[in-house]
Amino acid sequence: MAALGPVRYHAPMIRTAILGLGSYVPDRVVTNDELRFLDDKHERQAEPTINTDDAWIQQRTGIRERRYVMPGVATSDLAVQAATRALADAGCAATDIDCIIVGTLSPDIFFPGVGVFLQRKLGIADKTSCPCYDIRQQCSAFLYGLQMADAFIKSGMYKRVLLVGAEIHSHSMDYSTRGRDVTALFGDGAGAMVLGPAPTDDPRSGVIYTKVHADGTGAENLYIKIFDIAKAPYLAYDTRDREVNKDIYPQMDGKRVYVRAVREMNLATQRALAETGFTWDDIDWFVPHQANLRINEQVAALAKIPAEKCLHTIQFYGNTTAATVPLTIDHWRQAGKVKKGDRVLSTVFGSGFTWGAAIFTV
Ligand code: COA
Question: Catalytic: 99?
């Protein structure tokens, strides 16, 4: 009797689809002009607190205004709003979610992470016990999370992943001239996607491509320290003393970040096209991370991206870090530009340094 050969089992290939999308920004609009007069409590003062002006900010960054939360609102509150909208868009109940991934650099508290607060606020903490991941890749977190969600779904591990990027920057900015380079850039907001197995195995739809990178030599070019765990006590200053409290605010080497962001977002974009074989004719929208309009315009010029395919929201929302990608897609979907099934090429760059690119249909 002939020996049986090895038994080969080919599991059917699961592909990932974006089933729902949602976003949320707080109502309070802070224009560049108003920003000049705000104090640490976001209250308008009679005299300017920051030596800056609307023309400088618009010319250097493209930002006209940003959104700020009201006192008492936490990052998980923004996350739950965006998540609820993404769930409704996907036609899912919160109890269908079997995994939560949240990207944020502004968690409600140091630990536990925002994921468990979001789970609780969705009302599923005691119903599903679904796992909650917090990821810390700053402005690149949404594409890092997209890659994780895609891998989880492809492996059959989870069937409904809720991926959220949510940030409250307004509470941690330096409302003095010392912090003007950073304070002008950032705003509050959240965006979310629900991901699950795709109904088709069409390789040109769903999550098509993700690639993410990091270079830790840039870690001190954009960071917020707050504490140093190598020291005892780990908070070694009076946080109320503006002369000594620099560590509680973000620090940035703006020029180095700028140059590297242009370089890596361009290369990541070109690599995404080369590795998938797509051209700009196959891509409906280019959605770069929203840090600076000039960075994105330079990337678009280098990667020869048709201007009419570039989507931006930085003018209205500033940089909302982990939230910019879903927030921008959803903003333009609500405006009627982005349609169901459109193919998006997204690229991100942020603190770490971290960066990456992805191609997916929405
Ligand atoms: N308003 C007015 N003046 C400002 C200012 C503001 N908000 N921020 C900085 N300045 C001043 C600087 O203090 C400096 O003054 P000085 O010459 O007296 O020292 C002057 O403007 C020029 O600063 P510089 O840093 O050379 O300006 P820039 O052209 O590089 O623009 C950024 C600064 C921050 C807009 C720019 O470097 C940038 O966008 N970098 C990337 C940042 C980023 O994207 N971060 C997030 C990544 S995810």
Answer: no
pLDDT in tens, 333-345: 999 999 999 999 9
Q: How far is CA 247 from CA 105, 239, 250, 327, 337, in A?
A: 15, 9, 7, 29, 42
Which residues on adjacent β-strands are paired with residue 135? Answer: 103
The whole-model pTM stands at 0.95
Nearest CA owner, ligand 1 atom 41: 258
Q: Among 132, 139, 292, 312, which one carries the catalytic annotation?
A: 139
Dihedral angle of Cα 142, 148, 153, 154, to the nearest 10 degrees? 120
Q: Which residue CA neighbors atom 5 of ligand 1 most closely?
A: 181
Pocket test for ligand 1, best of 37, 140, 177, 181 (most atoms within 8 A of CB): 181
Q: Are 103 and 137 in contact (CB under 8 A)?
A: yes
User: Could you tell which of 35, 36, 60 is best to mutate to test the pocket of ligand 1, judged by most ligand atoms within 8 Å of the CB?
Assistant: 60
Residue-averaged pLDDT of the chain: 95
**Whether 131 contacts 114, CB under 8 Å:** no
- Encode pLDDT of 92-143 as tens digits: 999 999 999 999 999 999 999 999 999 999 999 998 899 999 999 999 999 9
Residue with CA at minimum distance from ligand 1 atom 47: 350
- Domains of the chain with CATH codes: 14-199 (3.40.47.10), 207-361 (3.40.47.10)
Concerning whether 319 is annotated as a catalytic residue, the answer is yes
Ligand 1 neighbour 291 (Cβ under 6 A):
yes
Mean pLDDT in residue range 154-180: 97
- Strand order of the β-sheet with 99-103 is 16-24, 189-197, 161-167, 99-103, 132-135
Annotate 257-269 with DSSP letters as a single string: HHHHHHHHHHHHH
What is the percentage of the chain residues whose pLDDT exceeds 90?
92
Q: Please report where in the chains the tokens 């991926």 appear, as a residue.
A: 163
